[in-house]
Design brief:
Number of helices: 9
CATH topology: Rossmann fold
Radius of gyration: 20 Å
Bound molecules: nicotinamide-adenine-dinucleotide
Strand content: 5-15%
Oligomer: single chain
Helix content: 40-55%
CATH superfamily: NAD(P)-binding Rossmann-like Domain
Number of domains: 1
Strand order of the largest sheet: 3-2-1-4-5-6-7-8
Shape: globular
Number of strands: 8
Largest sheet: 8 strands, mixed
Order of helices and strands: EHEHEHEHEHHEHHEEH
């Protein structure tokens, strides 16, 4: 018995890295899995279906059930096709894990509009399109009186929560995913849909060069940066056992943290309109009262 027996799960970007580990972990817990991936380069170029096929072969060799989906998750019709494939193949959809991603790192002063658009497109649109199609399906079921225990697991990043130098495009997309998730939880609970997000840390082609030392596999002991360490959380968030919604979880190895978003940290109310030259002193007091913001990754 697994905690996802009878569930049908889609994992986007499941050909490599974290998505691959999630797909294998879901299948090991009894889920039937749609392994979505276009096999793009780290920068989002080209296609190669061999990684997605390898994941399906790994799952089926272990006695699990999985099929490949080759749609671009950021394409509106492609995302619709992916949701339809789950329902056509196994008659249902229970969990959507939005994981696909790319990077095009550059300092803001050097970033091209193409680098900005490509990253925003894959992360934000690549999350919204499948979510939008999935929630249409779940709302229809809920309105027809069929019980729904649907789960959305979105992938944000520490870069989105705290900011990361040379990743303004990526961090902005990941911050958007974090806020989207809280709104999805607030809007969709009435249909039986829970939405949570993760900010993972693991070895993949996205991180193994940029953070080589931190990501290196130790010669012995706990390999904390193995992507498989992130998947148990994702599987639980994607299961009917999950009883939280609208939350952000940071996970790195065995370290699991609940994160919190923007908060009102200090407030002063004059009860009337300010003069511009009054503002400085009030801001000084408010900043003294408020906790220090978390440092931006990579800032000096
Ligand atoms: P990865 O490059 O190994 O995997 C990303 C996968 O997404 C690739 O297989 C790629 O082909 C696929 N993909 C890209 N565009 C796609 C599209 N339009 N449609 C379908 N598939 C597409 O990287 P990873 O590290 O496993 O990253 C997975 C997710 O985790 C990403 O969203 C990433 O931003 C996020 N993340 C990773 C880390 C980390 O430490 N590795 C940290 C924070 C966030």
């Amino acid at each position: 018995m697994g905690i996802c027996d009878d569930r049908v799960v889609i994992v986007t970007g499941a050909g490599r890295g974290l998505g691959r580990a999630h797909a294998i972990a879901f299948a090991a817990e009894g889920a039937r899995v749609i392994v979505n991936d276009i096999g793009a380069s780290l920068e989002g170029e080209g296609t190669d279906m061999s990684p997605a096929h390898e994941v399906v072969e790994t799952i089926t060799a272990a006695g699990g059930q999985a099929v490949v989906n080759a749609d671009d998750c950021a394409d509106w019709d492609g995302a619709g096709n992916m949701i339809a494939q789950a329902i056509d193949t196994w008659g249902r959809l229970d969990t959507l894990v939005c994981n696909a991603g790319i990077v095009r790192d550059r300092m803001i002063v050097n970033m091209s509009i193409e680098e900005w658009d490509a990253v925003i497109h894959v992360h934000l649109r690549g999350m919204f399109c499948p979510v939008r199609h999935a929630v249409s399906h779940w709302r229809e079921m809920s309105k027809a009186g069929t019980p729904v225990q649907a789960r959305i697991v979105n992938t944000s990043s520490g870069a989105g929560l705290f900011g990361s130098v040379a990743q303004a495009n990526y961090s902005s997309a990941k911050a958007g995913i974090a806020t989207f998730t809280t709104i999805a939880a607030a809007e969709l609970g009435r249909y039986g849909v829970q939405a949570n997000a993760i900010a993972p840390s693991a070895r993949s082609r996205m991180t193994e060069e940029a953070f080589a030392e931190m990501m290196a596999k130790p010669e012995s002991g706990f390999d904390s940066m193995d992507p498989a360490n992130v998947s148990p959380l994702v599987v639980w968030l994607g299961s009917s056992a999950c009883d939280v919604s609208g939350r952000m979880f940071e996970i790195a190895g065995g370290e699991l943290t609940v994160c919190d978003g923007w908060q009102r940290a200090a407030t002063f109310d004059k009860g009337a309109q300010y003069e511009p030259d009054e503002i400085g002193a009030i801001v000084t007091d408010l900043i003294r009262e408020a906790p220090q913001p978390a440092a931006v990754y990579g800032a000096q």
